[in-house]
Write a structure and sequence with these properties.
Endonuclease Iii, domain 2; Endonuclease III, domain 1; 11 helices; 60% helix
Length: 210
């Protein structure tokens, strides 16, 4: 795909949704970190149902530590892998209190040192909480980037590196939200809704649907 096509795709996505953000509910960087930590192999809707009551009861690292592991599990038991996620959440909260004064660090290295936090989670927090031009590549972004030929790669790291290279600076902060939402609602896995797609004429996917 050439530079002009990519620019037009990004311009259309921006015009359609000028202020995109995550569909996870949060009101501060800590809530976002915990929501993203809980969202692995779970839907944002499912996470929001659990974190609404949880954050109403405890939305700081110390408050969650004060809840204790068993009570935390009660709040998040509807989310897949909740036992492991609860343990990682408690360990993360302890590290935030011990090492960072109860605050979420604005540092990739410090974030990735937290239990259960990998590159993707760190990218989401740095981008959405702190406005960094990071791109968190999930299955939706991987699919959309490869299917459209916008930024092809054999794995999520390759796709991320390609996106960082080809996306102009003015679009970098928002591009991962646009691509996730596009993959979630339009360029879906089994049957993309090509007929309803605002970038269909620019997309280089061969097997377009009606």
């Amino acid at each position: 795909m050439n530079k002009e096509k990519r620019l037009e795709i990004l311009t259309r996505l921006r015009d359609d949704n000028p202020n995109p953000t995550t569909e996870l509910n949060f009101s501060n960087p800590f809530e976002l970190l915990i929501a993203v930590l809980l969202s692995a192999q779970a839907t944002d809707v499912g996470v929001n149902k659990a974190t609404g009551p949880l954050f109403a009861a405890a939305n700081t690292p110390q408050a969650i530590l004060d809840l204790g592991l068993d009570k935390l599990k009660d709040y998040i038991k509807t989310i897949g892998l909740f036992n492991t996620k609860a343990e990682n959440t408690m360990k993360t909260c302890q590290m935030l209190v011990d090492l960072h004064g109860g605050k979420v660090p604005e540092s990739r290295e410090a974030l990735e040192a937290l239990p259960g936090v990998g590159r993707k989670t760190a990218n989401v927090v740095l981008n959405t909480a702190f406005g960094w031009p990071t791109i968190a590549v999930d299955t939706h972004i991987d699919r959309v980037s490869n299917r459209t030929k916008f930024a092809m790669g054999k794995n999520v790291v390759e796709v991320e590196q390609k996106l960082l290279k080809v996306v102009p600076k003015e679009f970098k902060v928002d591009v991962h939200h646009w691509l996730i939402l596009h993959g979630r609602y339009v360029c879906t896995a089994r049957k993309p809704k090509c007929g309803a797609c605002i970038i269909e004429d620019l997309c280089e996917y061969k097997d377009k649907t009606e």
